[in-house]
Amino acid sequence: MRYAGRGAALAGLAGLEGARWAGDRGLEGARWAGDRAVEGARWAAPRAKRGFRSAVERGGELVDRIPVDDVVEQVRDYVDTARDAINDVVKDELNDLRKAVRRQRKRIGI
Q: Which of 21, 28, 88, 99 is exposed most, by the fewest CB atoms within 10 A?
């Protein structure tokens, strides 16, 4: 969860650096756009922080709502089914290989 805060911080930093770059260029329009970007970043920062805190606070109750036992049982069923299917295929391939070896031995007289 802490990486979401890092992403918001990086986005704000990018906005501020872009505003500074535009302001340093000296063009009136660029300076105006840079000032608006700074205002927007300052307006968005506390709201992003509040949203992040809310996500952190609610994260525990959201995790508690995940039906872990059902998920474990379903994954176990999938794994068992896959294991059985793989075992059947390997057994059939091994039997076919044995038959092919017997045919070749018979053909060459061993």
A: 28
